[in-house]
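User: Sequence in, structure out. Go.
Assistant: Echoing your sequence, followed by the C-alpha cells.
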Amino acid sequence: MMAHVLAFASPLQGHLSPMLKLAEALAIEGLLVTFLTTEHVYHKLGGADAPLCRRRQGLRLRSVPDGLPADHPRLAGHLWEIMQSLRDTSGEKYRELLVPLGKEEPDGWPPVTCTIVDALLSFAAEELGIPVMAFRAGSPCSFWAYFFVPKLIEQGEIPFPEGCDMDELVRGVPGMEGLLRRRDLPGFCRAKDANDPIIQATMLTTQWNPRARGLIFNSVEPMDAAVLAHIRTICPVTYTVGPLHNLVRALDPAHIATAGLWRENQTCLAWLDAQPSKSVVFVSFGSLAVLSRAQLLEFWHGLLNTRHRFLWVIRPDLLDETGGPGDLPFELTQEAKEKGCLVVEWAPQQAVLAHPAVGAFLTHSGWNSTLESIGAGVPMVCWPLFFDQTLNSRYVSEVWRAGVDMKDTCDRATVEKMVRAVMEGEAAAELRRNAAALAEMVRSCVGEGGSSRVGLEKLVQAIRAMSSGE
C-alpha cells in the first residue's frame, strides 16, 4: 500500500513551523502527507488552496475544530485554554480522517498508513491500529529533563524548597549532573505544588513518547550526541532530521519559506541593507513571551546604552497590557530612530539572521530560534522564560559556547553588559568562531550523506515499511 502520513500539529507557532517543514521534507521524498491542524490555523495558512500545497506535490492540508468561538483571540496568554479545548473537541474529527484500511478517500488519496503526532497531543496516540510516531518540536536536552520530572519529584527536588539557592546543581537527570542548576529547569518546576496542572500535563505528554513507533527530533546529531545517547536507552528508534528549515532548503534549493501565523513585515530587510557588517543586534522574544512594561523599558534602555544598532520585533500582544509600540515614551522612540528599527507584528526571522549586517541575536531561546541562529552562525544573548527555553539557554552558553545566558534578570545594566559581551572584544570573537563552526556543522549534516539527511532517509524507509505491514 502507498505510504500516506498524517502529520498532526499543535496550533502553536513554535510547533507548527517545524512540523510543516517535516511534512515538506517527507513530501519531497515521495510520500503522501496530510498536514492536520486546527481550523483557525488552516484558514491562516490558506486552506485547501494554500500556496504551500500548490507548490509541493503530495502535500495537502486538513483541519479539526479547536472548540473555541470564532472571535477567540488565540494569543499567547491563552495557551493552556487552547490546548485543553483542542483535546476535548478534536478527537471525533481526527478519527474520521484515519480512514480504515481498505477504503479510499473521496479525493482518491489512499488511507492513512502512519501518523506523526506532535508530542503535546498525547490524546492523539495510536488509533484504529495505525502506527504512530512522536515529533518533539523542542530540544533533546529538554525532553530528557522532562522525562525525569517524576524522579525529581520523588527525590524531593521539585517543587523547589522555599528560599532555596537557585544555582544549586540538580542531580536527578542522568548525564546532566554537573550542568543543570535549579534555575535551568523549566519554569513550571518553580510551582509550589507537584500537582500543578502544567507539571502534570508535561509529564503526560512526555511519558507516552517511548510507546510510539519512533521519536523524531528537529535536531542535529553531532551537536546533541551525548544527550541523544541517553534518550536512545529508552527510545531506541530515535531520528534526528534537523534543522528542518536547513534540511528542506538543502533538499530543494528553490524552496520558498512557509508563512506562519503572523504576517511578516519585510521592510526591515531594506533597513538592514543599509547597515555595516555585524553591526546589528536582532531582538525577538518569539510568539508566546509576554513582557511587562517595566521589562520592556529595561531592555530598551539597555540596548540604547550599548550604542549598537538594533532591530526589534514587537508583536501586538508582546506587552501584558493593552497597547503596543505606539505607547512607548516619546523620547525613547525619538532616540531609537538613530540606532534602531522596530518591526510591528513579525519579521522574516531566517532572512534576518542570515543577513550580513546582523552580529548577534537577543532571543527567548525557543528551540526554533536557537536552531535558526545556530544555522546562520549568529551568537546569542539568551533571555529564556519557560518550557525548554531555560535548558536551551544553558546549552547555548555552557555546552555549545555560542552565546551568553541572561536568565532571571533583565535590568538595563545587565542587558548592556550581555550585548557588549557578544558584540565587542575577544570574548565576542570567540563566540562568533564557535557559532560559525556550528553553522558549518549544520551545513554538513543537512548535505548529501550528512546525519540529518541519513536520518530522514531512515525515517522514510521506516514509514514505507510500516505502510506495507512489515
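User: And one key feature?
Assistant: Residues 285 and 364 are 5 Å apart (CA to CA).
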